[in-house]
Amino acid sequence: MIRPPAQVRAIGRAVERWGTATGADSRRPALPWRSTRDPWAVLVSEVMAQQTQLARVVPAYLRFLEMFPTPAACAAAPLGDVLRAWEGMGYNRRARNLHLAADALVAEHGGAVPADLAALLALPGVGPYTSRAVLAFAFGHDTGVVDTNAGRVLSRAVAGRPLRPAEAQALVDAMVPAGGGWQFGQALLDLGAMVCVAAAPRCGDCPIRPRCRWASAGRGGPDPARGSAAVSTAQTVFAGSDRQGRGRLVDALRRAPVPPDRVSAAMGWEDDPGRAARVVEGLIGDGLVARDDGGVLHLP
Length: 300
Description:
Elements: H1 5-22, H2 24-27, H3 39-48, H4 54-67, H5 71-76, H6 79-85, H7 93-109, H8 117-121, H9 128-137, H10 148-159, H11 165-175, H12 181-194, H13 213-216, H14 242-255, H15 263-266, H16 273-285, E1 290-291, E2 297-298
Helix pairs in contact: 1-11, 1-12, 3-4, 3-9, 10-12
């Protein structure tokens, strides 16, 4: 056992108290989704925040919800409009998945986001973290959330070792104070994002330092967060990658269709048309790009 249940619950209460006392919005830029319990708005924010800096998410989130305030509005729009609203976010597959999720919400749930874990997990692009974040932050369920920030806190402070996904989820679920799912979840994410950070954790500011197993061990040995559940690793180099070319082409298509003789240039690969053609076929296969009878590329 990682810790006795009473200790786990005590750590959860300490995290919740810290979040209540310090006030999340006073410690980081205002995050508009924290002032809503609208399940669709929460779902949009969580999908957008995947692998993206929050400073970039805020304007896109506000723009997106102004255009698509409900799942029905998103589902009724062409995918091209959704991709245009996604501008600046990258990872355009997320926009495609959100559009598909809106379709599913309309077709299967009467246009509402369900308060059910299995139903949320069945939505395109919705995984274990996003589904539980919607339950905790939109519906107030006492469900734990584990992203890369929370994962560091769990592995370092609570377990003192790397965790498997099922272990991390069970541990955080046991930490949630009764009736405190929203506040605890936000506080845990903030604790990992601003105190228990990856490179230089600010242990002197941590509300659970007296209970932290890694700190108690003098932070000796390997960082328990390395390789632990949900804790991200370094991404592959973006410059010169296929991802960069994909993003450049979709950005160009947001402005206007691209004729066949301009595709390589739009992707930044004027001297490698074969690579451009290969990547284009992948984008078409993903449903992010369409081609007319004349070979001109456009958004769907």
